[in-house]
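During the first year of the project, the team set up a workflow for recording each protein of interest as an amino acid sequence followed immediately by a discrete structure-token representation. This format lets reviewers and collaborators read both layers of information side by side without switching files. As required by the reporting guidelines, we include two representative entries from the current panel. The first entry is reproduced here exactly as it appears in our internal archive.
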Amino acid sequence: MYPSDLKEERWAILAPYVVKPLPEVRGNGRPPKQDFRAEINGMLYVLKTGCQWRMLPKDFPPWKTVYGYLGRWRLDGTWDAAMLALREAARQKVGRNKEPSVAIIDSRSVKSAGKGGSAVSTQGRRSRGASNISR
């Protein structure tokens, strides 16, 4: 057990999203034998510690497998759906509506139109030849 490992209540929310039933027609391939919870724990370990994927401890599945599932779940929308479910559960736990009712945007962090920036706010320089002092 690592401090970054999933707790039971979080796993209960995530499990339906990552442990999906196999499609009826899959070909001759074997069903995956990975423990998806161990793979998520590996992902959380790398996120928490900041270690390189290749330095993932041997307690977890192979780093290529963990990294592969991270990319696959990101592309197929699994992470988006799972994070939505976790956010809704966290909001309901503290007695709020599961959907936020207000959004605040800080104008300092939102990019404006394509014009402007440093090119517009920089003052033009006069050449030495245009200066009265250098004559």
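The second entry, processed by the same pipeline in the following quarter, appears below.
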Amino acid sequence: MFEVGFTEIVLIFGLALIVLGPQKLPKLASQIGRWVGRARAMARQLREQLDQEVNFEETRPHTPTSVAAPPAAPASPKTSPDSNPDLQAPHERPGQ
């Protein structure tokens, strides 16, 4: 996608030399080198940490987790609409 070849690097170096001058260019190059080194170290640490996490998950023994059954509901007497007049619809009540 974005490739920088040798000629582009030489062109960038030449422009930087003209703009910054020979005194500031070495300092800037060393600072950029430190930044790149830190970024690589951070990327390496992240990669190692992710590998450790993946390996930990793979080596950890998998024990099936049992799902507890819900508590049993208290026993209640069955009522039907026929035996309880309060549960009957108004049009089904006897005497109406």
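For the second entry, the following points were noted during internal review. Helices lie at 6-59. Residues 66 and 81 are 40 Å apart (CA to CA). Both points are flagged for discussion at the upcoming steering committee meeting.
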